[in-house]
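In the laboratory, one determines a bound structure by crystallizing the protein with its ligand and collecting diffraction data. In a computational setting the workflow is compressed into a single prediction: the sequence and the ligand go in, and a structural description comes out. We illustrate the idea with heme C.
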Amino acid sequence: MRETATSATDSRAPSIRHVRRRSALISLALCCASTCALATPPVPLVAPPASSIPAGPLGAAINLGQSIVVNSQRFAKAYVGNGLNCASCHLDAGRTPYAAPLVGLTGVFPEYRSRRGGVESLEQRINDCFVRSMNGRALPTGSAEMIGVLAYIAWLSQGVPVGTEVIGRGFRELAPPAQRPDQARGKTLYVQKCAVCHGATGQGLVGAANAFVFPPLWGARSFNTGAGMARVSIAAAFVQAKMPLGNAGTLTDQEAHDIAAYFTAQPRPRFAGAAGDWPKGERPADAR
Ligand code: HEC
Ligand code: HEC
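The predicted complex, in structure-token form:
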């Protein structure tokens, strides 16, 4: 069972190559010119060494937060409704550029988000992932779990100036595909390139102690329809940059869109609050 942040991705994927550098550094999904109030240019993403976690109660909170991110199944069990961990998507426990890193977030929240139609706190953003990506329920304010996740993100964010983003925040936005994303082409590619780990029916692979070694992409134990990953544009950006694990960067943008169109459309838990999203009418075309 994985309880620390560093090793797992690396051991399964010794040859992850640096993905292509493309133009947009800041994901449209997270921060648009019209809504983003940040004035300073982004800074490189540098995660602090694990040895800099202090001793004592603060260190214990940071460690709890890191454990929740890496192994949500165990350390935030009561709040998780599927088989995922935060680090299933926030790779290397939130240290990986263009996989929605957690580094640098403490100083950029509260911020405006069009999905909410208002300014939201980092706590609210964390709970968005609990209720959508994790198909679970919100951590109570002041709970040891919420304090832990906030402490971990604050520790990861040390050195990033307040009001400044890291390079690689969010996902690297892909250009719109030349051809409409095609689920049939996506299915063929999925079988060739993804099914070996995520399973022919997207169910993932369960290992020791009933924990997923490879997380599910659809079905009852996956993210729900309200999750960012359920949107074709976001799923394609993540997949193009980070999958297949160990061969990241090998898919064309078109292939990533086709595969994303396929797996996001498969059956998954329904998010009950979807009707309240984008209340100001900025609902993206690929929202479920
Ligand atoms: C299924 C994939 C997935 C899982 C699992 C997941 N997230 Fe996320 N997370 C995302 C995506 C996608 C985004 C941003 C995309 C969007 O919604 O626009 C995001 C964004 C975030 C952000 C804001 C990042 C930013 O730059 O503003 C935080 C904080 C966050 N997640 C925390 C968590 C925590 C804590 C967990 C575990 C309890 C978690 N996430 C689990 C996919 C996931
Ligand atoms: C070598 C095994 C492997 C292959 C091949 C692979 N993945 Fe993954 N994938 C993983 C692992 C492992 C994670 C979770 C990250 C972690 O635990 O470090 C993951 C995470 C994901 C996630 C986010 C978590 C979730 O369950 O939603 C998505 C989406 C995803 N992969 C899509 C794909 C797609 C699409 C392909 C094919 C193009 C693919 N993967 C190929 C191993 C693999």
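The radius of gyration is 18 Å. Keep in mind that any predicted model is a hypothesis to be tested, not a measurement.
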